[in-house]
Amino acid sequence: MSGERFVIPIGPQHPALKEPSHFEIFVDGEQVTGATLRLGYVHRGIEKGAEQRTWTQNLYLMERICGICSHVHALAFAQGVEALAGVQAPPRARAIRQVIAELERLHSHLLWLGVAAHEAGFDALFMYSWRDREVVMDLLELVSGNRVNYSANLLGGVKFDITAEQKVRILDGLNFIEERVHYYLGVVNTDETFLGRTRGVGLLSREEAERLGAVGPTARASGVTRDVRVDAPYAAYSEFPVKMVVSQQGDLQARFVVRLDECFESIRVIREILNNMPESELVVRMPRRIPAGEVVSRVEAPRGELFYFIVSGGGDKPERVKVRTPSLANWGTVLATAPGHKLADIPMLVAGIDPCFSCNDR
Amino acid sequence: MTIGSMFGDVFRSLFKKPVTERYPFQRPWVPERLRAKVVWNPENCSGCQLCVKDCPANALELIVVDKASKRFVMRYHADRCIYCAQCIESCRFKCLGFSTEEWELASANKTPFEVMYGRDEDIQFLLERAAQACSEQPVECGEAK
Amino acid sequence: MTLSLHPLVILLIFPGGLFLILAGLAYEYVDRKLVARFQNRIGPRWFQPLADLVKLLSKEEIVPQGVQRGLFYLLPLFALASALTAALYVPMVGLKPAYTFQGDLIVTIYLLSVLTLSMGLAGASTVDRFALVGATRTLTQLFSYEAPFMLALLGPAIAAQSWQIGNINEFAGQNLWMLVAQPIGFLVALVGLMGKLELPPFDAPEAETEIVAGALTEYSGRGLALFRLGKDIELVIGLTLVAAFYLGGLHSPFDFILKTLGLLLAVALMQTLFARLRIDQVVGLWWRIGTILAVIQLIAIIAGRYLGTLIF
Questions:
Q1: Cα gap C113→C165, rounded to integer Å
Q2: Which residues from chain B sit within 8 angstroms of residue A96, using beta carbons?
Q3: pLDDT tens digits, residue range C219-250?
Q4: What phi and psi values does residue A176 have, to the nearest 5 degrees?
Q5: How many beta-carbon contacts under 8 Å exist across A and B?
Q6: pLDDT classification of B1: cutoffs 50, 70, 90
Q7: Count of CB atoms within 10 A of residue B94's CB?
Q8: What is the pTM of this model?
């Protein structure tokens, strides 16, 4: 331990963090020499609460673990319970689940673009990308009735259908978003001041990413080819597959590019599904008591691989629900790449993995 | 390698109207599927209480006035409701729905949040019974409320 | 003394004191409104900066532990006092400067630096981590932009053959706009002004997402109100100086409002277009590009004058 340690505490209250956590950054002037992290400030005991609610009630509890990725949490839970009961949701329900999941990915990536731009001090990009995100929020409200926590899933299917005129509105909205994302990709790749903050910052090699267990766009930006939608397709991904977006660059700029390119993939897949929607009923009957067993359910949240482990004892309440969120897996990369950077890069590094503290604290 | 790559957009915004919705002065557009306050129609209710069992927030209570003739009163706690629409799906007879008009539910006290749905005479009957119980024993008042 | 008003009126009401404070608040409003419109949103209403000032003045001032009490109370006063004093030497509202003497250009620039120095000192005299890092960055930025900014203001002084702001103003009004005659100098002066005022992209010293509020983190209530007021007045004075030198001098109130607001439009546009520069990038930018450009401009002016005397 050198005697010159100067500790800058970032959090629990800090303008850079949207949710509380405690970083201790050891600096020497402006050079960062080490970092530690403490989580748990938003722990709400959701896993324990899940043991005292019925399966249907738990669907809504799981949805509220996170506001930005709420649909995929409910999706993972519903899929796990359906697997335990030996029931498969009908094709149209699975397609609608995928449409909502991809719309959620769009809105999450646009939100992240704004937040990361704000951390870099580029408020114009922040305001513009959030203005365009409103289009996606309006589409989600049109289809489901809520802007956040859409509650689209039921155990056994989905609650609502996408009508023909909603389809037209969605396609129009997607055209607008596609054009704007092209523009933002141009800004991110060519703006000199922005590149000065992102190029070469937070360089993570492929071996490091695999050793630390990084998931999602953070890992894909370092060349790790891992995507649950491609490796283990769920919902309707076997009928409407997605291409994996990978970059070999490994720095912060690559993470921007990977996420924005994923937006294009999402738009393409939503268009494909809406034009070829399978016909079937929306919901299949599920028993109230789920047979005993254990199941692992994995989905690709906008931040990475989301992992649910559900144990049923045969009753109408689960015995154990364990949630492993992607942000928890990505923290190691921040702590490993922080030393050697300047203090001003730390908020950008933290924002680069798209952290969701409510997710990982449950 | 450009400096000021957002120049076109930024400069043009000076001549465009701001996109901010001026909410209290302009009523925004709401979609027809908006999930606002839950409304209950007592016509077809069979008293199965599936909606009460399935509600994640314990926001619905079914008070039985007379089981044989299917007279029920539903007490809906708007402050506990999370607007998830599970109750609407659980009901087999389509008794529940969402009102798309009443979505400005903020209030300065708690009274508007406890809503009683049902036929008027049923609600009247319940209130009279509560008042009667109150006058007999003070303890009962708390329960019947 | 060139204005025919009683000295106390000049100091307290016009063009110093009360008028200057209100002008500072008005310019802050215009700046915030323009930045908001560039970002496609509405922005604050006209009385927002005044409301902020009144609110801050009415709040409790918390003196943190470990700070030097005397410095803590005095530094905001120094900042405001230096900003108010600097206004006496510039042509406010297009009238002649209230007081003028040989070399008042240097004194004005020095007074504006006293403001930045007191902010740096305010941050350095606490034990708060964020304030210490912010103070370091403030002083680093002060050392970087001061030289090119001074050189850029020197260009018109050499052209006018005088160190008095009043004379330079006259000269600028009678000849071709220096914006056209010394474009590089104008660019350096404009960007240097943004560095001096700590406006984005040079707001690393008070980067909100990295070090909360930089050097001013520990201030609240009255101290914060006075610092912010000092910064607003610095905005007005900086705009006046650059407009007087490069945009053809200020000779009437209408002239003043038109030119300073036009300059403010350019400043607001540049605020929104760029991401925040890291402090080491700021230093690199200024000491490499800024100084070289300013020196090139100076050489061009001196060569031009020499050639002029040779030919004519």
A1: 17
A2: none
A3: 888 889 999 999 999 999 999 988 888 888 88
A4: -60, -45
A5: 74
A6: low
A7: 10
A8: 0.89
Q: Which residue of C has its CA nearest to A13?
A: C212
**Domain A55-326 class in CATH:** mainly alpha
> Residue B3: its chain A contacts at CB < 8 A?
191-193
What is the value of ipTM here, to two decimals?
A: 0.86
Could you say which residues from 16 to 55 on chain B have a Cβ atom under 8 Å away from some Cβ of chain C?
A: 16, 18-20, 22
- Other Cβ atoms less than 10 A from the Cβ of C18: the count is 11
- Which secondary structure element, helix H or strand E, spans residue A294, and what is its range? strand A293-301
Q: Which residues of A touch C285 (CB under 8 A)?
A: none
Integer angstrom CA distances of residue C211 from A181, A330, C190: 31, 24, 26
Domain ranges of chain C: 7-311
Count of CB atoms situated within 10 Å of the CB of C6: 10
Looking at the DSSP assignment, which residues form a beta bridge with residue B74? B62, B117
Provide the residue-wise pLDDT of chain A in tens; the chain has 362 residues: 344 578 888 878 887 778 888 888 888 877 888 888 888 888 888 889 889 988 888 889 998 888 888 899 999 999 999 998 888 889 999 999 999 999 999 999 999 999 998 888 888 889 999 999 998 998 888 888 888 888 888 888 888 888 888 999 999 999 999 999 999 998 888 888 888 888 888 888 889 888 988 888 989 998 888 888 888 888 888 888 888 888 888 888 999 999 999 999 999 999 999 998 888 888 888 888 888 889 999 999 999 899 899 998 888 889 999 999 888 888 888 888 888 888 888 888 888 888 888 888 77
Report residue A241: phi and psi, to 5°: -75, 165
Q: Is the minimum CB–CB distance between A350 and chain B shorter than 8 Å?
A: no
- The one-letter code for the residue type at A168 is V
Helices and strands in chain A, H and E counts = 14, 8
Among residues C117, C105, C83, C87, which one has the least CA distance to residue C232?
Answer: C83
Residue C95: predicted pLDDT: 78
- How many residues make up chain A in this entry? 362
DSSP A247-269: -S--SHHHHHHHHHHHHHHHHHH
Q: Which residues pair with A283 in a beta bridge?
A: A157
Mutate to test the interface with A, among B1, B2, B5 (most CBs of A within 10 A): B5
For B2, which residue in chain C has the nearest alpha carbon?
A: C274
Residues in Cβ contact with C199 at an 8 Å cutoff, skipping those fewer than 6 apart: C267, C271
For C37, the closest of B4, B6, B14 (CB atoms) is B14
| B43–A contact, CB cutoff 8 A | no
Residue A124 in contact with residue C34, Cβ under 8 Å?
no
Neighbours of A257 (CB within 10 A): 19
Q: Which residues of C242-277 are buried (b: 16+ CB within 10 A; e: fewer)?
A: bbbbbbbbbbeeebbeebbeebbeebbbbbbbbbbb
Whether the upstream peptide bond of residue A12 has omega within 30° of 0, thus cis, is yes
**C207 membership: H or E segment, kind and range:** none
pLDDT the model gives residue B128: 77
A345/C272 CB distance under 8 A: no
The residues that bridge with A298 in the sheet, in sequence order, are: A307
Look at C273 and B20 and tell me if their CB atoms are within 8 Å. Answer: no
Q: Do A60 and B83 touch (CB under 8 A)?
A: no
Which of C36, C37, C273 lies closest to B6 in CB terms?
A: C273
* Under 8 Å between Cβ of A311 and A318: yes
The answer to whether residue C39 neighbours chain B at the CB level (below 8 Å) is yes
Chains in contact with chain A (at least 3 beta-carbon pairs closer than 8 A)? B, C
**Per-residue model confidence (pLDDT) at position A176:** 92
- Cβ(A78)–Cβ(A297) below 8 Å: no
Cross-chain CB nearest to B2 (options A54, A151, A192): A192
